[in-house]
């Protein structure tokens, strides 16, 4: 994708490739010539001043996810979109952009047409009497659905929102840990499971999570130890021995590749 973008930029400047339509409360970011399939489309978390919108192309250097050599870096193009908040919307927003993946997967018209459609949608449920648990459950439901669909990054976003309402919820931390493992963010996965263990130290599933995260970090002995400790809490589960065997097999395969 980055290579194709570089090739395109050799022929035309970036502002002829990308476009942004911005109103006080709505945003549409798109590739020119393909406006019906926007990159971003949704309602902003507050009001902005559309005339001060800036769109620039820069670059960012990041670690290559899933690369067999840890620490391998790459520099890729980055499209920077800057919005200026209106005076009535200064301060942090709960969410920068309310966007629906289902909407993005359908052909779209102009930003004005999208705004009209949004106004016609059913009103959100009355949340005036909701507790923090209610808000967390709403986000957890979205997170669980995203996880099942394999959209692990989206799941992480929703679990994180849920944790803002109930930060000491060990099940949310456990689920987010699993999602982090799916995208090879093993240290973040370990951080979550360690916090969850402070809340519920005897929950056997957390030892699975911890073992998986440690194995991803190539801390073989600690990973096997986590599975062994989990077996003490749930001795009837045959999966502990399987995970220990997988850990040593992963270590052996890793060492063989280094020879």
UniProtKB/TrEMBL annotation:
<feature type="repeat" description="TPR">
    <location>
        <begin position="204"/>
        <end position="237"/>
    </location>
</feature>
<protein>
    <submittedName>
        <fullName>Uncharacterized protein</fullName>
    </submittedName>
</protein>
<keyword id="KW-0802">TPR repeat</keyword>
<dbReference type="InterPro" id="IPR019734">
    <property type="entry name" value="TPR_rpt"/>
</dbReference>
<keyword id="KW-0677">Repeat</keyword>
<dbReference type="InterPro" id="IPR011990">
    <property type="entry name" value="TPR-like_helical_dom_sf"/>
</dbReference>
<dbReference type="GO" id="GO:0051879">
    <property type="term" value="F:Hsp90 protein binding"/>
</dbReference>
